Input
Amino acid sequence: MHGHDLSPSTLAVGAGRPDRVPGGPLNAPITLASALVPGGASEYGRHGNPTWDSFETVLGALEGGRALAFASGIAATTALIDLVPLHAAVVAPRHAYYGTVAQLMERDRRGQIELRLVDIDNTQQVIQACQGAAMLWIESPTNPALEIADIETIARAATTAGAAVAVDNTFATPLRQRPLDLGADFVVHSASKLLSGHGDVILGAIVTDDDRAYAALEKRRTMLGAIPGALETFLAARGIRTLHVRLDRAEANARELHRRLSASDQISHSRYPGFGTIIAFEVVGGAVIAQKITEQSDIITYATSLGGVESTWERRRRHPGEPESVPEGLIRFSVGIEDVEDLWNDIQNVLASVS
Ligand SMILES: *Cc1c(COP(=O)(O)O)cnc(C)c1O
Output
């Protein structure tokens, strides 16, 4: 397809499809292969697979770089952090996805890196922490606190300080934020979330516009073996075909539900960054009431994860790994594409039943 002139919606639908061959499929088939015929891009299934290519092409087109698929978001994170030199400093948000922070803390404990945790929305604090660092890890909005980083400013400062810049773009998606355009070197995705969009896939990706970094990461993927399955990349590419439509609808629902939640006297501090599908709010009654609310709703499912067509919510502190600075009564609400009045009725009913 003819890259840059096309709008993201058109790229989401059309990029990464096979050549139009009479009798050929419109979608890249699920290629199940350990060995492939020599002479092509890959001859072993750990090195490459045509179904991965389809997903990587459409995600790369949307982010403005070249994408590599990994077994999970965390596998993508691991491959990238692995490129940080031994004992070098990594700056990361205190409230990033807790699996990311847990991995960084473990590496710090083992003496592999020096971890500097920051409040990612405190631009001056981040800039100071970047002095002498090898990598700035950004997540914006953060999970679950929904803090917003000034990506352009801190990426510029980090680059000047000699640090590589990675942005976990899982919550925003390339349709709401393109980190490579804002000065980042790498974009990381948990494709398990909005990109796939139907709660049936674990998959990750890294996107970069630097060819040397791309080659290093591809080599890393082959070496570590954290490769995706063909089915997962097929499903994620299919999910991306409707990303713009799902996102518009879920976002409209989230905006309206945030407005109504903010007016409820049983809720305090409903946070919504103005885009995306995630709301985080606190329950005035605290942890016990918040837990009841999430377990007793009818349409909204009590479950972890996020970014699916179905609405889900959970009290984040039920996970022991969640930092103590996340309030005990905070509910993370992943808003789906159901009818907004049905969702609001569900919320009103459950609030009435616990009061
Ligand atoms: C879920 C998530 C991850 C981890 O991705 P997996 O696909 O579960 O490995 C990383 N970052 C964010 C922001 C997430 O929400």
Observations:
- Residues 244-354 form a domain with the Aspartate Aminotransferase, domain 1 fold (CATH 3.90.1150.10).
- The chain has two domains: 3-240, 244-354.
